[in-house]
Write a structure and sequence with these properties.
two-stranded antiparallel sheet
């Protein structure tokens, strides 16, 4: 876990007023110790166009990713629309890809219902004089497991992936991923949430995987 004394402590402990929902995910970094990724390097950030179905989405979120990297100290981050100055050598090329995978998950769950219905019983007693007294009482219905059935859940897995290469040799230097299952908002906002709350947690110098949870305000989702 990140120490609360780091520069990003306030962000790591992000708590937006209100309640209702949260974002829960995982950040992961796979690094090569022989190919460092440092904030002082010149980075050319591009959108992956390997898949036409995600190419435009990748491009839309590129400015936001660039801004979040600058907040992490990468002051020399450039994009195709904002290229580095002429004769400025690029150290790293990073490719951004935003993925959404929907799958169906089936599982067996108990079904609950009435085991025995409510009923009224009468308790009677007779005293020494032979007088009979009766009292009625109600026994509540009992509920419990009455069977099992197959249920289906729809799972929406979101991933923001940055693949870093050495601009000089083309060698793979690092792979960074931010993932979340069933985040709370609409698709575009979910990707924004992953970028904004995941990039601040990424490790750039060691291989590491870390889970995170961010509380969101009840009106956080615009749609």
């Amino acid at each position: 876990m990140t120490n609360a004394s780091t520069p990003f402590a306030a962000a790591l402990l992000l708590l937006l007023t209100g309640c209702a929902t949260h974002l829960q995910g995982t950040v992961s970094s796979e690094t090569d110790p022989n190919l460092p990724v440092r904030p002082d390097m010149v980075v050319l950030l591009k959108a992956s166009e390997a898949d036409e179905s995600t190419a435009l989405r990748n491009r839309r979120h590129l400015p936001n990713i660039a801004d979040r990297l600058r907040e992490r100290g990468f002051k020399k981050v450039f994009t195709p629309l904002s290229p580095p100055p002429r004769d400025t050598p690029v150290d790293l090329q990073a490719t951004a890809q935003l993925l959404r995978l929907t799958t169906a998950h089936q599982y067996t769950a108990p079904d609950y219902g009435e085991i025995s219905p409510a009923r009224t019983v009468t308790d009677c007693s007779t005293d020494a004089a032979g007088k009979k007294t009766c009292v009625q009482r109600t026994i509540r219905a009992r509920t419990g497991v009455i069977g099992y059935s197959t249920r289906t859940d729809t799972l929406h897995d979101y991933t923001v992936k940055l693949t870093w290469y050495s601009a000089r040799t083309g060698q793979l230097a690092m792979v960074s991923t931010i993932t979340a299952r069933n985040p709370p908002c609409a698709e575009e906002e979910n990707f924004e949430l992953l970028v904004e709350n995941g990039l601040m947690r990424l490790s750039f110098d060691t291989t590491r995987t870390e889970s995170f949870r961010v509380e969101l305000a009840k009106d956080q989702c615009r749609r």
